[in-house]
Amino acid sequence: MAEFIEVRTTIEGHERAAELAHGILRAGLATSIDIAEVPHPAIAGNGVAWQLTLITTPPKVGTLERHIREVGADAPITSEPIIHDVDSYPDWLADDPQ
C-alpha cells in the first residue's frame, strides 16, 4: 500500500482555488497543495481553470474528496498512489562529485 496519495482536481476562479486549498489545510486533509493555472476551453472568458494537486494519506482520501465536493467543485477528482521513493535523490544529485 502506498504511503501517500496524489489527488487532483480543477476549479474555476483563483479565489475559489485559494479558499479550497486553505480549507483543506485547516482541516488537516493534505500535507501539500500545489495550485497551477491550466487552460480550460470550456470556461467562458479567459478559458483558465486552477488545478489543485494535493498529497494526502490513504485514510484521508474519502474525506478529502467529500470536502472538495462540498465546496462546489464539480470537476473530476483523480486519486493515484505515489509509488516512487519521495526521499530518494536523483542520480545526478546523489553522485559523489569527487
Could you characterize the architecture of this molecule?
This protein is α+β, with helices and mostly antiparallel strands and 98 residues long. The protein has helices at residues 14-26, 61-70, 91-94; strands at residues 5-11, 32-39, 48-56, 78-81. The longest helix has 13 residues, at 14-26.
> Helical element count?
3
State the share of residues found in helices, binned by percent.
25-40%
The spatial strand order of the largest sheet comes to 2-3-1-4
The protein's oligomeric status is: single chain
* Structural classification: alpha+beta
Residue runs with pLDDT of under 50 for 5 or more positions: none
**First and last CA, distance:** 38 Å
Helix and strand pattern: EHEEHEH
Strand content: 25-35%
Sheet having the most strands:
4 strands, antiparallel
Mean pLDDT: 83
User: What's the overall geometry?
Assistant: globular
Report the count of strand segments.
4
Radius of gyration: 16 Å
Describe the secondary structure blueprint for this structure:
Elements: E1 5-11, H1 14-26, E2 32-39, E3 48-56, H2 61-70, E4 78-81, H3 91-94
Antiparallel strand pairs: 1-3, 1-4, 2-3
